[in-house]
Structures are given as C-alpha cells and as structure tokens.
Specification:
Largest sheet: 7 strands, mixed
Distance between the termini: 71 Å
Structural class: alpha/beta
CATH class of the largest domain: Alpha Beta
Shape: globular
CATH architecture of the largest domain: 3-Layer(aba) Sandwich
Radius of gyration: 23 Å
CATH superfamily of the largest domain: Vaccinia Virus protein VP39
Strand content: 5-15%
CATH topology of the largest domain: Rossmann fold
Order of helices and strands: HHHHHHHHHEHEEHEHEHEEHHEHEE
Length: 411
C-alpha cells in the first residue's frame, strides 16, 4: 500500500538523522540507503532539508521540546527526533502546523503519538521562535573560541550557490546573464535552490560549482604560463580546473578513482585538461619536481558546516587528532616535491586550530606571506601571513566556508 503524500520524504529524513546521530555517518554517506522508496527529486530534497535544519538547530529545538515536557525525553528517543523534525518544518521550512502534524505523527505509529501531538501543539499555541543564530554544541563553541558567536550567525542559513568561471574576464557578463553577484574576478554567486544543469553556460562549460572560499587557495598560485602544478587530494576537482584554466600543466592526484569521476566530467565539459593519477600520496613519488604544489588536505570539514551541519555533531577531538596527524605527514611529503623557486599552498576546510594554524606553523620552509592585495574585498591575511576564513565572514554577501590557507616558496 502506497504511503500518504509527504510521508516518504519524512521517513527518509528520519533515516538520515538516524544514520548521522546513531552511526556517525555524513548526510552524503547516508543518502543512498535513506532515500530508498523516494523517487521524486522534490521529496528527496525535502528529506535533506528537514534533516539539515534539525542538525543545524538541534540544541535550540531540544530546548523548546524540553520546555513543554514534564519528563525529559531521552536524547535518542524516537519521539524526540520526530519532534525535532516537526519543529524544524514549522519554524524553518514554513510548513503549516496541520500539515506537520498529519505527516509527523505517522512516523510514530505504535509509539507515543499523543505525547508528540501534545508537545508540538503546546509550542504552536505559545508561538515559540528560534533565536537569530543556532546554539552550538558546548564542545564546538569551546573549540572555536572568540569567533564562535560570529560563526554561529553564519550557520543560520544554508549557503548560496557559488560558481567559478573558466574565463575570469567574463565575470561581469556571467553575473548579468545569471542574475548573480560577484565577490572576485572569476566568481558568480546565485541564490540557493538553483537547478545547476538548467543554467546558461553549464552545457558549454563556462563555469563549475565551487564554494567561494574553496576557490581562494588556487588563486594564490597565480598564472601558470605553462609550468607544472600538482594538485594533491584533488577530488572533486574544482581547484584542478582553476589551475588548468590559469595556464598550469596540471597533475591531479587522488586516492579515489570514483571521486575523480566528477573532475573527469567537468574537464570534458569545460574543455580543460589535466593528468589524473589515482594513488595514495603517502605511497607515491613523482617522476620530477613541480613548480607548484597545492595540498587541499583531507580534514574534518568543520568549515563546511553551513552545507554539512552534521559536522557539528559527529566531529570531536578524536577525529581532529587523527586528521591532524595525517595532514602533517602529507604536508611533509608535499614540501619535498617542489622544484627550485616552487610554491606550496596548504589548505584545509576546517575551523580547527590543529588542522589549520598548527599545521602551517610547523613546516620548515621559507613562508611566502599572503598579502591583502591578493585577496577579495573584505578579507585580510593574519599576522602570520596566512588566510583564515569562517562562515561569519562576508555575512552581508551570503557568507563563506571556513578555511586555513598558507603558502611557502623554496629558494
């Protein structure tokens, strides 16, 4: 028997949350299994939106739930998870309360439906509201220190859609054609929810999707003029495309052939070229040194919390420590693959000190400080000559992901 309209999306959202909160999976890892029986793209998008808003605002949703219950529900109780989903739909996705009740209580068949109905109805009558910025989990706020409040403000909304242009000289043209804004040459920002494949310029390869902050590390290597560049941990490939478009002869290396699939597709679509190498960089030696090496290191990705709010709940000190040790080994190897006069850029899309500033400070190479003149308006280098971004920056223009970027040049 077919489920009533709207129920498959809610069940998929519940499965996504279960995978994240019980098993520590990412939303992307959980997506395929969770979406079984949900064929419609709109329903799949709704399931992701519900799960994302629950994870983004979970501490505040829990505070509302606790304010309306005499006996505290367990953190992993199904009734609590469903109530989080119901409140997220009402308060964040503007779903009418009657529709929330009709679809939400179906998830508690054989369970405490009466309790969930009562709690939700009480909060609706009280006309409760969420704060302007989500409350961060205690350990997260402590790690992010004095910037935690600004970062939280930047996490309140999912990010817009950023495009990197194959030809930066056409920035004004594409911003006008697509109805977007530009934060730097070669960049266009559009409102979220845009169907990428339907946009003008997609089929012609005029641009590719890439977060604005993620586009900054490759910019700091400058024009290639036919020189050789190595892009390490290259998938999904935005930086390799940037380097190829800037005139570098690119070798793009990644441990995962499957993850390089998107880069292959984008190289064909944009008519750019790069040599792809599938190998573990910790077990590889290049045949010759490179004029530029870009290491966008594997990390906890806490800087992408706008897009992946599950990192607020599944990342802690053990994961941070493990990634930091791996990054140190990678950075040491990458530094040995530079030709005389070559540049090395290290980047990590993490807000954690151990994965960013601590890595940049340990490498015994001559630093090449990043200058304010190289950066888009509104961004400044640190006192050490690094670039630190976070979701609280450029808030008026839609924010950005969190990155630490550092650069060195050998003699």
């Amino acid at each position: 028997m077919a489920s009533p309209p709207g129920i498959p999306a809610r069940r998929a959202g519940l499965r996504l949350l279960d995978a994240v909160l019980r098993r520590g999976a990412t939303l992307d890892q959980a997506d395929q299994a969770a979406m079984g029986g949900v064929p419609l793209p709109a329903d799949r998008a709704l399931a992701r939106a519900i799960a994302g808003e629950v994870l983004r605002w979970m501490a505040d949703l829990d505070a509302l739930i606790d304010s309306a219950t005499r006996q505290r529900l367990a953190g992993d109780a199904k009734a609590r998870i469903v109530l989080r989903m119901m409140l997220a739909q009402w308060l964040r996705l503007n779903t009418p309360p009657h529709a929330v009740i009709a679809t939400g209580l179906e998830l508690l068949t054989g369970g405490p439906r009466r309790l969930a109905h009562g709690v939700f109805s009480t909060l609706v009558r009280q006309r409760v509201a969420l704060p302007q910025a989500p409350t961060l989990p205690p350990g997260v706020a402590e790690r992010w220190g004095e910037r935690a409040g600004a970062i939280a403000t930047g996490l309140a909304e999912p990010p817009p859609l950023d495009l990197t242009l194959r030809d930066p000289s056409e920035t004004t043209l594409w911003a006008e054609r697509l109805g977007g804004i530009s934060l730097a040459p070669g960049h266009v920002r559009l409102a979220r929810g845009t169907a990428v494949e339907r946009l003008e310029g997609f089929a012609d390869g005029a641009w590719w999707v890439q977060d604005f902050a993620a586009s900054l590390p490759a910019r700091l290597l400058g024009a290639g003029d036919g020189r050789r560049a190595l892009d390490l941990c290259a998938a999904p490939g935005g930086k390799a495309l940037q380097l190829a478009a800037a005139g570098w002869q690119v070798t793009a290396l990644d441990i995962s052939d499957a993850r390089l699939g998107r880069l292959r597709e984008n190289l064909a679509r944009t008519r750019l070229s790069a040599e792809l190498v599938v190998v573990d960089m910790l077990e590889w030696e290049p045949p010759a040194p490179f004029d530029a090496v870009l290491l966008d290191a594997p990390c906890t990705a806490t800087g992408t919390a706008r897009r992946h709010p599950e990192v607020l709940h599944r990342i802690g000190e053990p994961q941070i420590g493990e990634m930091a040790r791996q990054q140190a080994r990678m950075l040491e190897r990458a530094a040995g693959w530079l030709a005389p006069g070559g540049r090395l850029v290290y980047a990590a899309c993490s807000l954690e000190h151990a994965e960013g500033e601590a890595q940049a400070s340990r490498l015994p190479l001559p630093p090449e400080p990043i200058s304010a003149a190289e950066l888009p308006a509104g961004l400044e280098p640190t006192a050490e000559g690094w670039l630190r971004t976070d979701p609280g920056m450029l808030a008026d223009a839609g924010g950005m992901d969190g990155f630490l970027v550092a650069r060195w040049q050998v003699d």
